[in-house]
């Protein structure tokens, strides 16, 4: 079944197939089954009790799949899934930021194909296609093997734990300061919103009105009059 599905793909000269979620809703059933199969293999290899990558989850967001085929273009050696996610991230200064950002969501090479440079080839292909550096991309719940890979190939190892279990390396904040000042997709950060900062907006000063047009004025005080002259007594 896998070979039949792979034949329906159109790899480039580097044996990569790039699938964008917005263009993949009408893929052939064989290709849909292939995505489900490799996604299941990835989850099993990571010891997870749930599937990260399936066809439905792939087309359900702004995602991209990078599939690497063998030299004969008959088998899948591995894949990467990236996509944009809305995240709340803490920096080292204790500020929290909300941003929509490209994330590494799944990264898998079949065990029989590991330690042959395929993982680095896939990462390099993704970075070239997305015009990014690895330090700019948060990783969703990376395995120890993935963290070791990032340290060995990109020198990325220091990070502050996030409550959402994404790993954001310290170098991310070094390259993103300008993006926080001016929203720009070129720097991988969209709509940055600093959160949990003091509210410095002054409250409007409230003053009582000088007069109330709906308030009735008090009646004049009654005076005693002379019953003969009808003038006030002196």
UniProtKB/TrEMBL annotation:
Keywords: Acyltransferase, Transferase. Acetyl-CoA binds at residues 107-120. It catalyses: L-lysyl-[alpha-tubulin] + acetyl-CoA = N(6)-acetyl-L-lysyl-[alpha-tubulin] + CoA + H(+). Its EC number is 2.3.1.108. One of its GO terms (biological process) is regulation of microtubule cytoskeleton organization. Pfam families: Acetyltransf_16 (PF05301). Residues 1-173 form the N-acetyltransferase domain. One of its GO terms (cellular component) is microtubule. Residues 210-234 are annotated as: Disordered. InterPro entries: Acyl_CoA_acyltransferase, Atat, GNAT_ATAT. The record marks 46 as: Crucial for catalytic activity. It comes from the Eukaryota. GO terms for molecular function: tubulin N-acetyltransferase activity. PANTHER family: ALPHA-TUBULIN N-ACETYLTRANSFERASE 1 (PTHR12327:SF0). Belongs to the acetyltransferase ATAT1 family. Specifically acetylates 'Lys-40' in alpha-tubulin on the lumenal side of microtubules. Promotes microtubule destabilization and accelerates microtubule dynamics; this activity may be independent of acetylation activity. Acetylates alpha-tubulin with a slow enzymatic rate, due to a catalytic site that is not optimized for acetyl transfer. Enters the microtubule through each end and diffuses quickly throughout the lumen of microtubules. This is Alpha-tubulin N-acetyltransferase. It comes from Tritrichomonas foetus.
């Amino acid at each position: 079944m896998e070979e039949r599905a792979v034949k329906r793909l159109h790899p480039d000269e580097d044996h990569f197939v790039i699938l964008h979620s917005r263009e993949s809703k009408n893929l052939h059933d064989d290709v849909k089954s292939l995505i489900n199969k490799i996604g299941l293999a990835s989850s099993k290899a990571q010891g997870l009790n749930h599937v990260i990558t399936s066809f439905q989850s792939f087309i359900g967001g702004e995602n991209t799949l990078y599939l690497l085929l063998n030299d004969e273009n008959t088998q899948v050696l591995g894949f990467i899934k990236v996509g944009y996610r809305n995240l709340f991230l803490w920096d080292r200064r204790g500020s929290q930021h909300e941003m929509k950002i490209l994330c590494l969501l799944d990264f898998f090479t079949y065990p029989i194909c590991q330690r042959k440079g395929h993982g680095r080839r896939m990462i390099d292909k993704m970075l070239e296609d997305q015009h990014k550096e690895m330090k700019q991309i948060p990783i969703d719940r990376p395995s120890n093997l993935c963290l070791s890979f990032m340290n060995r190939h990109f020198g990325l190892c220091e990070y502050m734990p996030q409550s959402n279990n994404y790993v954001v390396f310290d170098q991310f904040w070094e390259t993103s300061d300008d993006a926080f000042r001016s929203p720009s997709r070129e720097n991988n950060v969209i709509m940055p919103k600093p959160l949990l900062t003091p509210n410095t907006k002054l409250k409007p000063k409230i003053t009582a009105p000088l007069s109330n047009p709906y308030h009735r004025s008090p009646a004049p005080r009654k005076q005693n009059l002379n019953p003969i002259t009808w003038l006030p007594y002196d």
